[in-house]
Amino acid sequence: MSDIEEASDTLAEVNLDDTHNPLTENLESDPNSNLKDIVVIIGATVPTGFELTAADEVKEKLGSQSRISKDRGKIYFEISVEKLSQVHRLRSVDNLFVVVQEFTDYQFKETKEDALKDLEDLAKKLPWTDPLKVWKLNTNLKKRKTKHKKQNQQSSASKEKLNDDGGKDSATQKDADKELLDHAQNTLSLKSAEQNTEKTQEMILADDQSDGKDEFLNITGNENQAGNCKEGEAEAQVLKFRVTCNRAGDKHCFTSNDAARDFGGAVQDYFQWKADMTNFDVEVLLNIHNNEVVVGIALTEESLHRRNITHFGPTTLRSTLAYGMLRLCDPQPTDIIIDPMSGTGAIPIEGATEWPSCYHIAGDNNPQAVKRAANNICSLLKKNQNKESGTSWGIPIDTIQWDICNLPLRTSSVDVIVTDMPFGKRIGSKKKNWDLYPACLMEMSRICRPGTGRAVLLTQDRKCFAKALSKMGHLWQKGHTVWVNVGGLHAAVYLLKRTLERAGEKRSYW
Fold this sequence. Notes:
Organism: Mauremys mutica
Number of helices: 16
Keywords: Methyltransferase, RNA-binding, Transferase, tRNA processing
Protein name: THUMP domain-containing protein
Distance between the termini: 44 Å
GO biological process, one term: tRNA methylation
Largest sheet: 8 strands, mixed
Strand order of the largest sheet: 2-3-1-4-8-7-5-6
Mean pLDDT: 78
Subcellular location: Cytoplasm
């Protein structure tokens, strides 16, 4: 299991909105802790073209309005820290970061030296306090839960014995959860005596902008004091960091590396952190898009789209993109959803995870692809089994090897078709697509329910698809099109609706 899967599980299980969760109660009863009152802006990178889909998911699951950035592929929304766990459960986002400050119309100086000097000065003026608290909570929960999960896996045999003994396992689990939650609360709570001592030591920096620095030094100091008593060295408490700059626009007199170097140097001087480009604790993000500047702190170590697939193929689709395609077709309970060219099964597996009340079928003509899909399903079942302490109810999905032009399904038996069609680059060829696409659309129209059926199809071979669709206008009605970026390729996702007309007899396009 990857680190980000464990992080998502951590933050989902320690749900601060749960009325039975002792962490919220501890925060309310502790006068030194004001985490429950913190409201921050979260930035999320999403598949390009699916910004509106991601915004809809945020509104549906978090109740927050999202703002789509001018820089495509990013959205921003406001949450309280109590909803941090739910943010990590969003299915449409790739990476998350907490916003330190945003400038919608930042005026860069005309010369390179002056522009970079402004960025250096900016690091000392930013409101770091709340974002660093959120980062610290996020990090502590990930570390603690990772250790907790490893201990659970090692003692799985003894837990099975306890399950046969009338509630012993339940008591053990409650104690473990209490220990985890108490640790998170104790780590983030500032003792008044220690706080006064730190404030005295940092008196020389006592101005409005130093609050974030002082409070964060207190937090890290309190956590590390007990664990580092033997070492007793200040260097052991110094965090490692790096600055990542993403810049877009042609009116800047500096490069991304220039901005990251100078801004990072200022951050290092301000916090006395140690720069490390690979083994870093904190990743500071500097996003520059024309005159829009956003400074943030990363909350994810790797993309959240790496959540379902363990066996990859040459063209495995990202889970976040698969979710966006599925959401376009608005699955309803009891719908039969198929991916006739599923490859490693990214789309059906995402569908079965998020829409378990539907039935999903993953099919492909390549036996190796079908084997990879089956292995990915088995991996997901094992993951669910670990989470449920050895009990798994399975997921509503099947795999099958078939011919896309001759599907072993009854006419009008499928509600939704969602698939990633061959681009004609890594698999197949552009020439073959001229015969394959019309044959696929005809066979899909046969198995799809007239009037209510729909299809969501991804392809980069837009010219060939448009020609094939023009011959099927009596069977498929084209809805809206979403333009996406897939591995650097400009592709399109087409939403089609099945007309009431009955599909004719099969024709050979080969």
